[in-house]
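Handoff note, outgoing to incoming analyst
You'll be picking up this chain. Sequence as last confirmed:
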Amino acid sequence: MFTNRRTVRIEWGDCDAAQIVFYPRYFAFFDASTHHLFGAAGFPKPEMLKDPGFIGYPMVDTRAKFYVPSKFGDDIIIESTIAEFRRSSFDVLHKVYKGETLAIEAWETRVWAGPHPDDPDRIKSKPIPQHIIDRFKQG
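Most recent structure output, in case you need it:
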């Protein structure tokens, strides 16, 4: 499977009073990491949004296990990969490393979405295009 790695510097605004990352900030990092993953695979979101049949891949479930905290000034590596594809949804696995140490494992379930055919104010899940699945499975 295709994997993307990116380095994130922990900034002052990411931290609480104890200077450790305030946990909701990680979920923002993971969201951005999913977009970076698609971009690195050749599917940058701004280009994908030019397709009128595609609205996005909203998150419908997320969870994380926190093992080691990160602090102001740390550099962390976020490694992201698609763990599983289904008809219209997929799971993303994010692993956060501090040096060689696994600090966090996080999972997202996202749905491939387009405009609802009967109501322009709503979205509807759609099958994930096969060429997207094939690219991620190539590695």
